[in-house]
């Protein structure tokens, strides 16, 4: 990680809010927690630049406009947009010259925050998203501010819940999974059905794409957008679920189970199973039988 660096031009109004939190050991170990949270009314030449900070940052533009520089790209920030970034990476954001920039923001962290960030970046090549008019994001950040103004026994638990909801909204918005199931393209539905019902076959991405008359690239990208997993990973998940069923309720040898779920080499099956459950197939069977 690069050495930490922060440089700020604090051109925000006197009625702006900036609150710093010191999370408890419990919050750091078990929850998502606020590091700083605020509501700024900022004008040029306001800017913040930083690098090497162990924090994730959500910034929601309420009014006015700003600009973000992140990962060698520049983004205009307008009302209703949010950005989500990893503060270990260099970033620079600033108010534009055309008027005050009103922004709600929260620095957060937690034991699984990186997983949310990686899920977000897996779906969205841009750190900036436009949220709909019905987004709860601004209300959540305002609630975080209120909870840190009047701290009480359950503040950290309530904040963790709000942060979980905020992170979930970011990932689902990035993935486009706010659609109803009826919006899923027919070829994605067909691919899911093929995997669910023929998981023991030698299914490959190329074979599925050819069967469904779509490109390999489009199938992979669209499948992940709507299902949340790449087709190959979804196939592995389905196979592992059936393997668990055999291990729990049948007395088949591990090699036979591998063959029944479509995996030729028992050693490959054992490695896949252990990677996804933390146990070998026999250890999983033993643990289940001992209950």
UniProtKB/TrEMBL annotation:
User: GO MF annotations for this entry?
Assistant: DNA-binding transcription factor activity; sequence-specific DNA binding
Q: Does the keyword Transcription regulation apply?
A: yes
What keywords does the record list, in alphabetical order?
Activator, DNA-binding, Transcription, Transcription regulation
| PROSITE patterns from the UniProt entry | HTH_ARAC_FAMILY_1, HTH_ARAC_FAMILY_2
HTH araC/xylS-type domain mapped to chain residues: 189-287
Q: Which Pfam families match?
A: AraC_binding, HTH_18
* Superkingdom of origin organism: Bacteria
PANTHER family for this protein: HTH-TYPE TRANSCRIPTIONAL ACTIVATOR RHAS-RELATED
Q: What is this protein called?
A: AraC family transcriptional regulator
Q: Which organism is it from?
A: Cohnella ginsengisoli
